[in-house]
Each structure stands twice: as structure tokens, then as C-alpha cells.
Design a protein that fits this description.
Elements lengths: L2 H8 L3 H9 L7 E3 L2 E3 L3 H14 L4 H14 L4 H50 L1
Antiparallel strand pairs: 1-2
């Protein structure tokens, strides 16, 4: 398939596909004259890249995994699991931060309600 069809199937822009190839995130496809020809394996790889990006992986992080894959022929699961665990730790820390902020919002709301109630009592007392 040509790059336009690959883009339609995966939802990855033509520009991004070319960029991924340029930085070594995906392998260089075969060529038929001046056209790149992609096989179905590119669909799977691009879908995995999109999923990893949605999960918070940067292109630099993915590039390190792609480089290791190029050297070993397959994705080294030990490296992948290690990177996933790092991301999991970061996400859990962010989750705790979000919980604290949500708690803080409730406290702020209660403080303002209490403050307003005190002001209203004060105003009623002066009437």
C-alpha cells in the first residue's frame, strides 16, 4: 500500500509517518520507483506507536525501544517492561497529586462557604 492508504487506515498523518521513518522509529519501507510501499506490519507498528503516545510515551522513549528492536530483531521485552514500569510509576504519582488537588478543591469550597456564612451572620447582626 502507498503512504496515503496507510495514513487513512491508521489515522497517522503522512507527515508523521515520514517523520517516524526519518528518526528511525519505523523501518524504511520498500520502494517501487519513487513511491514507498508499506506492508501490513506498518499498520500494527503505527497503531502501537499511537497507543504508546496516548499512554504518555514520548517519541524519544519510543525511539530507544525501536533502536533496541533493530539491534535484536524483535522488541526486547525486558526493556519494554522496564519502560512501562517507569511510566506506571509516573502515572501513579500523578494520580496521587490529582487526588490531593481534588481534596484541596473540596477544602477550598468548604472554606469559602464557611467564610460567606460568617460574613452573612456579621451583616445580619448589624441590621
Amino acid at each position: 500500500m502507498y503512504i496515503g492508504e496507510l495514513s487513512k487506515i491508521t489515522g497517522v498523518s503522512v507527515k508523521a509517518i515520514r517523520h517516524y521513518e526519518e528518526i528511525g522509529l519505523i523501518k524504511t519501507p520498500l520502494r517501487k520507483e519513487k513511491y514507498r510501499i508499506y506492508d501490513n506490519s506498518f499498520v500494527d507498528v503505527l497503531n502501537m506507536i499511537q497507543l504508546a503516545k496516548r499512554l504518555g510515551f514520548s517519541l524519544a522513549e519510543l525511539k530507544a525501544i525501536a533502536k533496541a528492536k533493530t539491534e535484536k530483531g524483535i522488541v526486547p521485552m525486558d526493556l519494554l517492561v522496564q519502560e512501562i514500569e517507569k511510566k506506571r510509576i509516573v502515572l501513579l504519582a500523578q494520580q496521587e497529586t490529582i487526588k490531593e488537588k481534588l481534596k484541596g478543591l473540596t477544602e477550598l469550597e468548604q472554606s469559602v462557604a464557611h467564610y460567606n456564612a460568617c460574613l452573612l451572620e456579621s451583616l445580619e447582626a448589624t441590621d
